[in-house]
Amino acid sequence: MAQDNVIIRFEKVSFAYNDKSVILDEANFSVRKNSIVTIIGQNGAGKSTIFKLLLKKIRPQSGKINLENGATVGIAEQMIAPEKLGLTVLEYFQTALPDMKYGIEGLIDKILDTVSLKTLLTKKVGEFSGGEKARILLAYALITNPDVLLLDEPTNNLDASGIEFLTTFLVNYKKTCIVISHDSAFLNCFTDGVLNLDVHTHKVEQFVGNYYDVIEEIAAKLERDRMLNARLEKSIKDRFEKVNKLGGKSIAMNQLARRIREDIAEDRQEIVEMRKEDKTIPQFEIENQEFVGYVVKIHKPVKIELAKGNRLLVKGPNGIGKSTLLKSILSGKSADINPLIRVGYYSQDFSELNFDQLAYDSLMEVSEIKKPQVIYEAGSKFLLNGELLRNKIGCLSEGQKGLLCYARFMLQKPGLLILDEPTNHINFRHIPVISKTINNYAGPVILVSHLLEFVDEIKNLSELDLSNV
Question: DSSP per residue over 212-242, as a string?
Answer without folding.
Answer: HHHHHHHHHHHHHHHHHHHHHHHHHHHHHHH
